[in-house]
């Protein structure tokens, strides 16, 4: 099987995330493993924990990133954020791409967990692909409110090509 090309929107998001070689990072909703592959390429002593509620997403990430798993840079788990117990004391960064948890329902417990685990100076990045049906104002309003309630300082990042909007919650 030939690996799929990594979409420009994911490349842009990982560039904004800017993982450093020693970072401890959490990816929420790893899906096919595109971002995990790019992040792990930048890690040396750092580690990525990638989680997904979907068993097929976990399986696809494990297949795509088998070398990073073997090298000890990546752990992939079939679990949702609400029940996750983060195995490291502090995270430098956490991120999600197109995960609607942060704007469609109450996510106070999940965001509080992230705020507790992200190191001072670290950040949570939430990226969303902009399509004709994406309700960008609603996403920004609801997700920003959830992050600010937990104590994050929020800023918006966006790209026109590829069309992506993101929130950066700084700790």
TrEMBL record:
<keyword id="KW-0489">Methyltransferase</keyword>
<protein>
    <submittedName>
        <fullName>Class I SAM-dependent methyltransferase</fullName>
    </submittedName>
</protein>
<dbReference type="GO" id="GO:0008168">
    <property type="term" value="F:methyltransferase activity"/>
</dbReference>
<dbReference type="InterPro" id="IPR041698">
    <property type="entry name" value="Methyltransf_25"/>
</dbReference>
<dbReference type="GO" id="GO:0032259">
    <property type="term" value="P:methylation"/>
</dbReference>
<keyword id="KW-0808">Transferase</keyword>
<feature type="domain" description="Methyltransferase">
    <location>
        <begin position="25"/>
        <end position="122"/>
    </location>
</feature>
<dbReference type="InterPro" id="IPR029063">
    <property type="entry name" value="SAM-dependent_MTases_sf"/>
</dbReference>
<dbReference type="Pfam" id="PF13649">
    <property type="entry name" value="Methyltransf_25"/>
</dbReference>
